[in-house]
Amino acid sequence: MEKNEAIKDGQVISRREMIVGAGALAVGAAVARLGLTDAVAKELPAKYPYVKLDPEEIGERAYQSWYKGFCSYAVADAILGTLQDRVGEPYTALPILNMSKWGYGGGVGWGTMCGCLIGTGIVTGVIAGQEGEAIFNEVIHWYSENELPAYNPKNPKLAGFTPVRTKSDSPLCHISTNRWTKKSGFVKLTPQRKDRCARLVAETAMQTAMQLNDWADGKFKKKHEFQLAIFGTTTQSNCMDCHGTNVPKVPR
Ligand code: HEC
Questions:
Q1: Is 241 a pocket residue for ligand 1 (Cβ < 6 Å)?
Q2: Exposure string over 126-165, b if 16+ CB within 10 A, otherwise e
Q3: Which residue is closest in CA terms to ligand 1's atom 36?
Q4: Other C-beta atoms lying within 10 Å of the C-beta of residue 20
Q5: Number of other residues whose CB lies within 10 A of the CB of residue 75
Q6: pLDDT tens digits for range 6-22
Q7: Is pLDDT of 101 > 60?
Q8: N-terminal to C-terminal alpha carbon distance within the chain
């Protein structure tokens, strides 16, 4: 296959066809899915200028923004909104609410990827383009592998409430939320359950800002390979949660 060709629906097509046929965003998604970094990465639009952010400030803004537009918006608003204030153009042209709010509840409530991670993907994509994917990957690992939330807001909405912490082992909203509700006992959509999400989201926004700051300093380290390279298929890592002890082998 030539360098300026790619595979779509099993057929080799030229890069020109991909761009003309699909539009830049769809091409970006197709590239990510097929792992065709070389062929089309250069076609991703120029990165947005980044200035280093104060993680504490980002956390507080994300916490408050959760109460305005939920998880995905909260991360996007905390980071991209702060950059709108700090840098101005081109960030000011971004319709932050419209481009991110739909991620709530793991995609309008479908419980797939946790909305704060969807927000992170939007943010790292806008700011760091192709390089943003490795940053996003690290934040997904961090989210899945840590006991969260540990973040304490400066101006908490619920006085005297400190949520228990749980490890999701998964980036899925459904698993993350319900592991927490089970352990905490807040099984209904109570104010406590909402506040746990707001804190978790704040902490994820902070983690994202810290990774982006490292990246801006040239200190970002990719610690994990991408899932496709590790498992040979698109997957989360917690195979046994769904398959039990009988995890099927991925055909190679
Ligand atoms: C969120 C739940 C979930 C997780 C996590 C998960 N799987 Fe699956 N997987 C499924 C479901 C559901 C199917 C479809 C099974 C079916 O229809 O019989 C499936 C199918 C498969 C299949 C093909 C069908 C088969 O039985 O041969 C393979 C291979 C597989 N999974 C491997 C893995 C591996 C390896 C991991 C971890 C790296 C993993 N899965 C993680 C839910 C999950």
A1: yes
A2: bbbbbbbbbbbbbbbebbbeeebbebebeeeeeeeeebeb
A3: 239
A4: 10
A5: 34
A6: 433 333 333 333 333 33
A7: yes
A8: 21
